[in-house]
Amino acid sequence: MAITSYKINGETYFKVYVQARGQTDVSLRLQRRRLKINSMAEARKIEKKLYKTVYEEIAKIEGRGLKWVDIIDRWATSAKLGYLGDRYSQDHQISEHTNRLKRYTKEWLNVQACDLTRGDGRRVLNFAEEQGLAQATIRSIKSSINMVYKWGIEEKLIVGTHTTPVERLSVKKKVEKVVKILSMDEIKTFLNEARNLKHPWYHIWSFAFYTGMRSGELMALQWKDIDFEKVIINVSKSYKRSHNLLKCTKSGYWRMVPISPELMSILNELRKDSPNEDDFVLPRHYAWTNGEAGKVLRGFLESLGIVRPVNFHSLRACFATHMLASGVNQATVMKIGGWQDLKTFQIYVRLAGVEVKGATDALQVLSPFQDKTTNNVLTMVR
Fold this sequence. Notes:
This protein is α+β, with helices and mostly antiparallel strands. It folds into three domains: 2-63; 68-154, DNA polymerase, domain 1 (Orthogonal Bundle); 184-352, hpI Integrase, Chain A. It is 44% helix and 13% strand. It has 14 helices and ten strands. Strands 1-2-3 form a three-stranded antiparallel sheet, covered by helices on one side. It has a three-stranded antiparallel sheet with strand order 4-5-8. A hairpin with a 4-residue loop joins strand 9 (369-371) and strand 10.
């Protein structure tokens, strides 16, 4: 903010430089300069005009609200201070939303939030789909945008609009993939071989199949969660690998899992050393905590000649499907495994075939076949 003189080829000229900061957003700064002015009087007039210009532009920008990155940061600060209630009281929940937004809406960060349109929102969701992200992940991106943007509108940090860039935009439905599971014979071969070879993952795989627990729940399981008198496991927490901490289960509530006789024998093997009640039940292999459990599982199965595009979560699917096939009702299996969404669980019901088994037996329209050479009537085998 000054007028200075300088010389060019012996001639004296003046230059003007002005800057101004925002009143509500101190990070907002505008600068203007003008060179090669012939006189001080003219420079002073230009200085006044430049001041007026920058302040008008700042007022216009601030009247439209903040940049998208500022909205995200202010939302995070409010959440950490407890102004948004208990729902966002934990740092890892807040960082999940902020990291997701800064990663998937990177092109928006320095744009005035009120200037974002539904076209911008559509491009973000379409790009996420093109990247092959899971439908659940795309829904999470949309949910985070809606939540933070609406908060900005309510706090009058975003002005001139009442809708978010992704409001009323639908996430395209993907064709449901067939869940890959192992047959009961394959499971018997797989677990028996793992036991005979004393494979380091044997106990983990067995627990996953016998309980239907999720990977994070198995990783968080401690000896104090095992009730040997009641023969049950109390599943109340899960390990979150991205933040290296224990949190509540995915469904948000605790549940009881019965211990089968075979699982009890495995537990007895594991507790030979009289472990402390705060110790973890299962070994925490590096590949497991590093997200490579599926790779280890597929490698061992392939060594047995069982080639399937499965992952660690497939053992949970095996639990549900074979429990249903053995006659256990849906409600019980859902309660043990912690499923809340009946629509999601129907995948396992279809895999087990329990709802349609024998349904076509009543379709009998063909007459018994008569062999003319022997004149015998052959009854068709059902």
